[in-house]
Amino acid sequence: MVKPKAKVDEEQCLSCGGCVSVCPKDAISLKNLRAYVDKEKCISCEICVNTCPIGAINMEAVD
Ligand code: SF4
Ligand code: SF4
Question: SS3 of 60, please?
Answer without folding.
Answer: strand
